[in-house]
Amino acid sequence: MTLPSPYSDPSSPVTAVGTTAGTPARQFSEPLREMCALALLGGNAVFLFLGFSSLFFVIDGWASGFGLRCAAVFSTFVGPLAIGLPMAAVLLATYVAPMVPRSRVILLTALIEYGIGAFFGAVTFLGAFASDLVSVRATLEGLLGRSVWLGFLILAGVVVVRVWMGLFPAPRPRPVAYAGAYAQPAYGRPYPGQPMYPHATYKPGSAAPTYPASDEPTSETGWPLVPPPPMPGPLVVDADPTMRVAPTTIEIGGDATQAVPAPAPTPVPVHVESPTQQISGSTSDRGA
């Protein structure tokens, strides 16, 4: 079985035209694609520097001839070369598959060159407009022609910006989870700090749900009951040591009498029944 060749046969005009893989000549120029894009950007950078030098690095008649110099170097900042060279570099680097490894650097450099051209293009546009005010015809023609070239430059810059934002989007900030933030309770669960009350599950055809008295989880509720608050301990009231009890006379044998003192009162525990702590107690019976 013979595998098809990755490149079309150049001797056949049918297979050489309209193929997606490209012609065999591409394998020779593909390694130079990135270098060609960088060379286009470097050449445009040299032209921009020459235009800047011609505009400002002048000794004689710097102020009087500024308007004429602006009209002369306007096309250097906003012209066919200033717009076409960076755009061609972007197309070579990103629009031809596969993209070159330094496509990010090429896009960034093209954006910087368009920004420099737009800034000095606006400066030379105003200078040339002020220089053409001596003639109405020159003013109108210069205003219309330079406005069109500025529009082309802005359009090319917008295209490069959109390609940059699509290929290299800015990372989105992730939300930070703050410690101690209020957590949203799940359905059927109480808020933090609230007691858990039993929730009985009612099934059709069964008896009414009941709430168990124990605090253990059951199959019906699924939630432990809240234990009752602890009862206060018994309150013991001690007898008053200064209390005196009168002796009781008991007849023994019908003649003699003997005084038997009553037993000391026994402390009686008293339970608190209400917030006012009503205390009730009783003492033991005295001797008959």
Q: How would you explain this protein's 3D organization?
A:
The chain is mostly helical. The chain has a domain at 29-167. The protein contains seven helices and four strands. The strands form two sheets. The chain has a two-stranded antiparallel sheet. Strand 2 (248-252) and strand 3 (256-260) form a beta hairpin. Helix 3 packs parallel to helix 6 and helix 5 (80-95) runs parallel beside helix 7. The chain is elongated and about 135 Å long. The chain starts with 12 loop residues before the first helix and ends in an 18-residue tail after the last strand.
Rg over CA atoms:
51 Å
Helix content: 40-55%
- The assigned structural class equals mainly alpha
Global morphology: elongated
Mean pLDDT: 74
> Largest sheet, described in full?
2 strands, antiparallel
Order of helices and strands: HHHHHHHEEEE
Strand order of the largest sheet: 1-4
* Unreliable spans: 4-20, 274-288
Key structural traits:
288 residues; mainly alpha; two-stranded antiparallel sheet; disordered C terminus
